[in-house]
Structure formats: structure tokens, C-alpha cells
Task: inverse folding
């Protein structure tokens, strides 16, 4: 596998959607993934919000890391700084959604502000830091990781809608069948492993 710094941003974008899906490969961000995926509209809105947050946060955190944290020698504070950036981005996005789509804001409920503590967001930022991506790679990885999360929640919402009216054994109804479906989805995404992986 090539060094992370040598990976083309376009390849990185598609790899982080398919072969290295942050949700189905690393199981980051499963709390809101399972809770919100009951409805298509809420899943679409949350997926879009997570994509924007991860993409924007990777870009901002890369800039802060390169031009503030490393020059000042305060790498030990990077976690705290990243969390502050993530919280600020989520707060701004929350205000925009509340202003322009009150129905989506109400349907997402508590899960919108909880994007701040969604481990997929912090995980993507930390992967970006650990792998020492350049700026374009960080942005491509961020939006790719978000798009992969969005794709996964939309697929799960569609599957849950299909199995809602089908007979499911009583012991598997609810969370049981949902976890089984997520497992099958993760195995299906392994089928893309012939492409480049970024983990």
C-alpha cells in the first residue's frame, strides 16, 4: 500500500466512502446511526449534516494543526482544540438548519447537537492527523468519510423500511435485526476491498 501522503485525493475520497467506510469499517458513529435510521427524511438530513461537519472540520482542523498547533509546539492540546472546532462547526450548522428547515431541526431532535460528540467526526479528524494528510487529502478524506456515513445511514433506513412490514422472529425485532443488517452491510462493503484501502 502506498504511503498515506502519496494517495491521490480523488482516490482517497472514493476509498473513504467504500473500502474504508468510517462507519462500516471502524464502527464510529453508530449511536445516532441506529437511532435515526428509522425514517428516510431524518436519515437524509442527519447524513447531510454529518457529511458537512466532517468535511468542514477536517479542513479547519488541518489548518489549525499546521498553522497554530505545530508551530506553537502545543500538539498535546490538539484533542481539546479539535473538540472546540467541532463544537463550533456543529453549533453554526444547528443554527442554519433551525433557520432554514425547522421541520428537519425538530425531527433530528437531540441528535443534531450530539454530532459534536459523534465519534465519527473526531475519528475522521484524528485519522487525518495521524496519517499526516495534506490539505486536499484532508478535505477529500473528510467529505468522503462523511459521504460514506451518509450512504450507510441511507441504506440502513431503506432496508429498515423494507423489513418493517415483513415477518421477523419476535426475538430479533427492533435492535436485533438492525444489528444483523448492519453486519451484512459491513460484509457487503468488504466486497470493495480490491480497491485501495486507507486504514
Result:
Amino acid at each position: 500500500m502506498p504511503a498515506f501522503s502519496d494517495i491521490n485525493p480523488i482516490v482517497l475520497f472514493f476509498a473513504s466512502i467504500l473500502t474504508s467506510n468510517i462507519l462500516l469499517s471502524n464502527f464510529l458513529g453508530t449511536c445516532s446511526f441506529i437511532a435515526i435510521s428509522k425514517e428516510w427524511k431524518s436519515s437524509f438530513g442527519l447524513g447531510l449534516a454529518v457529511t458537512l461537519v466532517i468535511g468542514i472540520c477536517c479542513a479547519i482542523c488541518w489548518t489549525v494543526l499546521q498553522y497554530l498547533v505545530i508551530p506553537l509546539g502545543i500538539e498535546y492540546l490538539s484533542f481539546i482544540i479539535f473538540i472546540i472546532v467541532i463544537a463550533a462547526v456543529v453549533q453554526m450548522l444547528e443554527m442554519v438548519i433551525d433557520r432554514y428547515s425547522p421541520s428537519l431541526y425538530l425531527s433530528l431532535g437531540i441528535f443534531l447537537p450530539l454530532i459534536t460528540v459523534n465519534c465519527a467526526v473526531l475519528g475522521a479528524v484524528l485519522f487525518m492527523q495521524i496519517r499526516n494528510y495534506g490539505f486536499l487529502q484532508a478535505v477529500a478524506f473528510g467529505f468522503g468519510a462523511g459521504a460514506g456515513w451518509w450512504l450507510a445511514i441511507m441504506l440502513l433506513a431503506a432496508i429498515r423500511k423494507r423489513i418493517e412490514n415483513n415477518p421477523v422472529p419476535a426475538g430479533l425485532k427492533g435492535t436485533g435485526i438492525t444489528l444483523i443488517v448492519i453486519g451484512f452491510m459491513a460484509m457487503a462493503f468488504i466486497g470493495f476491498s480490491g480497491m485501495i484501502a486507507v486504514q
